[in-house]
Each structure stands twice: as structure tokens, then as C-alpha cells.
Amino acid sequence: MHQSWVRLPLSVAFVLLTVLWAQPSAAQEDDELDELREKLEASAIVEKKVMVPMRDGVRLATDIYRPKGVEGPLPTLFWRTPYNFNQLGRRRIETAMDYLERGYAFVIQNERGKFFSEGDWEILGFPRTDGYDALSWIAAQEWSNGKVGTLGCSSSAEWQLALAAMDHPAHAAMVPMASGAGIGRVGPFLEQGNWYRGGVYQMLFGVWLYGVQNTQRPRLPEGLPREDVVRLSRYFDLAPKMPEVDWPEQIRHLPLVEMLANVDGPQGIYSELIQRRPNDPAWYQGGLYHDDEPWGVPALWLNSWYDVSIGPNLALFNHVTANATDPEVANNQYVVIAPTPHCRFFGAEEETLVGTWATSGSTTKS
């Protein structure tokens, strides 16, 4: 542990519960949304498509929002994602404005190989190198006080686990929400990022990779000046439009290794992963967190009873509280479990039934 660094109070993590991570949609592109964007621009010092260099020279596209009229240096909330944030949707704008009003800088970054970030993509986005380097870069900025809190749900949470093993001196607190796909081996679970359950491949990840593993894609030239990247991002967002697929039919396709090729899907990591076994040494070379690693960061864990990985998530929480080498870190692990599906912590009233299930028009107590 880096005893000379004062950790961000864990109470800050509870502020992060305002996060709503729904993806932006075309329906949001209306006059009210434009007004929200203008309001955000008016209340913040905004730097878009800052090309942050990694240790190997690859640059990652990063947007920075800092509150106007607030004296620094500032603590930072950092959200890292493989998804498109070229145009923020309503909920993310409202979230960013909330953070700015509370005196935080808000930093958004695309993983390498995604959208305007350079390099080649890998699941979890190289948390031990790119994630570590991003925190170092943030902490070194003149507007930063050297403390960074990481947050996010699903893909924006899973990379945080391996980063926590690195115990970066600037990593003050974290809020991993629905982060099971970042867990390799923990206790009795050997799911390798939820790829398996009970040693059997889970079909949902092939469907997910159909829309995510777009490694064959149009790219801007590497080394392009930031001004050009900003200008081009105004009328290109490099987001793929994937053809619809009848997945209930396609997931029955055999052999499994050909499933994505059968729908003319993008080439990528799927064809390799589907041929691995749960104990393949290659699982320990990527960005997954395994229970033989240290843990150095206070955390607020958000999980769901009806998610794909509640078992590994709770096993990891218990492992960290029992094995973190620093008592301060071990005593500052908190978990909230919601009666919701994946990443629906803030919309439970819409589709959640607790204690009942319906069949043939009747309701039966469970």
C-alpha cells in the first residue's frame, strides 16, 4: 500500500449511485437534448478527443469535463468504455453535470482500438497497462489533485478489477457495477469472465461479441493531430451499424466456432475463445482478475440477484474483505445487491418482480 496517499473517502462512492448507463438512442436527439448539451458546455471546461499516450505510444481518445469557476486541483471520476460516447445521451449528460456541480472533474476514455482511440482492441482493454497509464496521466495534470475514482457498469466496471490489483497510488476508490465478466478464477468459480458456467460456454457472449469485436473497421490515421480528430468527430462517429440477426435460431448453429462467421459477423477474438477450456493458461495472460492477486482499493460493489454472475461477484467481495493486505482497504469494501437484471440498478420499478413469477396468466408465490 501507498501509505503516503490519502484515499478518497468511501462516502464519495455513494455519490456515484446517481449513475445511469443506458446507451444513447436516436429518440434522444431532440431539442431538449440539444439544450442539455448546451447547458453542459456552458457549465464546464470541455476538452474533447484529447489523445492520451500510453507507454507504447498508442493514443486513447479522451474527453475531459471540469467545472467552471471551481478552484483546483480537483478529484477525478474516471469512466472507461469500449462503447461510443462521441455524442453523450441525456442520462450521461445529467450524470456529468451532477459530478461537475459536486466539484469533480469527469473523464471519459475509449479503450484502445475503439472508435477514435488508436491501436488494437482486446476484451477489458489492457487494464494493467493502459488502465494504469491513464490513471498516471490524469494524476499528472495540473487540474488534478492526484486522486481518481473509477466507476461504471458491465464493460466499464470489469476492467477495474485487474487495475485494483495494481494498487496505483492515484486509485482512491472504485464503484464496480455488474463486474462479473472481469473475474477469472475466484474461490470455487472458474468462469473466466463468465465465459463458462459449470464448464459450459454461455451463448450470450457470442451475441455480445457480434456487435463489439469490430477489429476490422475504418480507422483514422494514427498520429493525426488532435484538432483534426475533433473536427472529424463532428461528422463521423465510427459507430458500426450491425445487421439484425435471428439469434434464437443462430445460437443453435454447429459447430460453435463458426457461429459468427455463419452470420457474416466481424472477425475477432470469438473464434479463439470458443476453442479454449476453462483451465487454458491463456486466460491468465489477459485482463481478468484472479484470486491469487493482491487488492489495493476501497470499493462499493453494486450487483444484481438476476445477473449472469452473482455467485462470482459475491465470492470476490468476500475474498477481498478477507484477504486485502491493508486493513483499511479490507474494512472499506461495501456491497449492494439489487433485485434487478444486469445494469438495471436505477430502473427496477420498470420490470422487476420480486418473490413472484407468472405463468399462463396466473401468479404463483415462489
Fold topology:
Blueprint: H1 11-15, H2 31-43, E1 44-53, E2 59-67, E3 74-81, H3 90-101, E4 105-110, H4 127-140, E5 144-153, H5 155-166, E6 171-177, E7 185-186, E8 189-190, E9 196-197, E10 200-201, H6 204-212, H7 226-233, H8 247-250, H9 259-262, H10 270-273, E11 299-304, H11 310-323, H12 327-330, E12 333-338, H13 348-351, E13 356-359, E14 362-365
Helix pairs in contact: 2-3, 4-5
The CATH C-level name is: Alpha Beta
**Helical stretch tally:** 13
Largest sheet: 8 strands, mixed
Q: End-to-end span in angstroms?
A: 46 Å
Sketch the topology as an H/E string, one letter per element: HHEEEHEHEHEEEEEHHHHHEHHEHEE
* Relevant CATH superfamily: Alpha/Beta hydrolase fold, catalytic domain
Number of DSSP-assigned strands: 14
Derived from helix and strand composition plus strand pairing, the structural class reads: alpha/beta
Estimated share of beta-strand residues: 15-25%
Q: What count of structural domains?
A: 1
Whole-number radius of gyration? 21 Å
Low-confidence runs = 1-6, 11-22, 357-366
Under the CATH scheme, which architecture would be assigned?
Answer: 3-Layer(aba) Sandwich
